TrEMBL record:
Record-linked SUPFAM superfamilies: ATPase domain of HSP90 chaperone/DNA topoisomerase II/histidine kinase, HAMP domain-like, Homodimeric domain of signal transducing histidine kinase
Compartments (UniProt record): Cell membrane
Transmembrane segments: 168-189
Record keywords: ATP-binding, Cell membrane, Kinase, Membrane, Nucleotide-binding, Phosphoprotein, Transferase, Transmembrane, Transmembrane helix, Two-component regulatory system
Catalytic activity: ATP + protein L-histidine = ADP + protein N-phospho-L-histidine
Protein name: histidine kinase
Source species: Paenibacillus amylolyticus
Highest rank taxon of the organism: Bacteria
Molecular-function GO terms, alphabetical: ATP binding; phosphorelay sensor kinase activity
Amino acid sequence: MSLHNWSTRWLKLSLAILLLILLCSLGLFFPLLASHSSNESAPMINQVRLKVNPILLELEQNHDRLAHPVVQERIREAASKENIPFSYVGLDGLIKLSSVSSSEGTLVNLRSVLHYNLADVLQLADGNESLDIAFPVMGSPEGPQVGNAIFTVPRSLVFAQKPSTVPIFLLVAVIILSLLLMFLLYTIVRRIKEQMLTPVKQLKHHAESILKGKYDEQIQYRRTDEIGDLYAMLDLMRMELMHLSTQRIRQEKAQKELITNISHDLKTPITTIKAYIDAISQGVCEDEDTLKEYLDIMQIHTDKTARLVEDLLVHALHELGQISVEPQERYSRSVFENMLRPIAHIVQSHGLTYEQPSPIPDVLIRIDPVRMEQVISNLVSNALKHTAPGDYIRIHAEVHSGQFKLTITDSGRGIQAQDMPFVFERYFRGGSSSSPYSTPIQEGTGLGLSICKSIIEAHGGQIHFSSKNGQETLFQFSLPLC
């Protein structure tokens, strides 16, 4: 079950429970209110009886002595004290004593003036401010009735007791509490929808876009909460995947270009070698000098082919993480003199001036001579590609800060500023120079400097360069001393 369906079902269930509670409260309130109204008259009669009880007591105790003035005065004082007018009527209908002396001796109709029931009194009162209520006067607790006392009481005395507000208060409290709970539930569900369901749904959409390879769709979420952290992590993942995808596409393109370039670079020397072999086989060489010239040319192209194959092998080993570097403790002078000795002939054969290091420091270092010769060969070949007849290549060696440093400087056209960040990247072959006669892309596989960097770092050293476009370029690597 989805989170959205779960929250919707719980909201409906909670609302149903609240409505059930509200209906039950109403069901309990109305019977309670009805029972309260039905019992309302009983406490009213009791309240009136308590009020007139002192007068009734005097009448019952002195009903046979009502003719004495002292008795009459005492009963009138009791009525005056309670502020309730009264009339004492005999069983024959004759008024024997009254708060109003002028009405004494008057004969009344007992049927019309005697009302013992409060409901009948209220019905006959019809909105009057005073009510006439009759109470029987007994001669003794077990004796016969001797008369009737009719009291005129104010309506306020009958309705003095206010109805209880407890049931209404309870009902209002239940209604308010139910409304508050409903509002709270609505607020909770709304916040869950806004801060959880909607962001999760958007997060799902972004994840599906990433799954389809749409990495350029930026993920935005402004709140700094747990969902925001999740959005941030997903966006970082998107950016990383986009970078890896771009890098993969670039690498695949570079590998295709590498195969094309290698095919071209291998085809040219092989074709040349084959042509000279055919010429020799056909007896074109008329003398030994011509044969030696052909053999030298074939040797040059054979070396070039060997270097290309070696670069490919090192590149493949580097891709597999299996590049073989076996450093040994050797003295630097003898090792580098042997490596640099053939460099002079190669540089001078290109019409360049060669400045060799003199002298080379003789210190103990850990070095793999085969791999290091490959580094120097690649750096010199790179310098030859960027120079023209009349330029120079200078090699300098020194020991500084516990490092053996070798510098190869050329006075060629330099490296363009936009190419500098990519010099040591695989497959990068550089752009064109400002010269209108230069080729758009430099020849080569684009692996040489990347291989140099890998070999130097495998020795525990570092390699860097500096260049000024149109002036000179300097490559320097350093190796730690033993």
